[in-house]
Design a protein that fits this description.
Elements (H helix, E strand, L loop, with lengths): L1 H17 L2 E9 L2 E8 L7 H16 L5 E4 L1
Parallel strand pairs: 2-3
Antiparallel strand pairs: 1-2
């Protein structure tokens, strides 16, 4: 599952990097994915929205085994 998540994140990264941010995969356990927003995304007031409505939506659509996305 980790490789699938990395592949999906690689498709999302260019959009985040265009705004000076990035996302990194920290851990995957029992359908729970822990991500860390970096760069401009780390302090952005829209980070929670980006995580839930952007990254989580895309990852769950591509990988149905994912139950939850958590920012760490």
């Amino acid at each position: 599952m980790r490789n699938k998540i990395e592949a999906a994140l690689n498709s999302i990264r260019p959009n985040l990097q265009a705004d000076g941010g990035d996302v990194g995969l920290i851990d995957v356990s029992e359908g729970v994915v822990k991500l860390r927003l970096r760069g401009a995304c780390a302090g952005c007031p829209m980070a929670a929205l980006t995580l839930k409505n952007g990254i989580e939506r895309i990852l769950k659509a591509e990988i149905p085994e994912i139950k939850q996305i958590i920012a760490v």
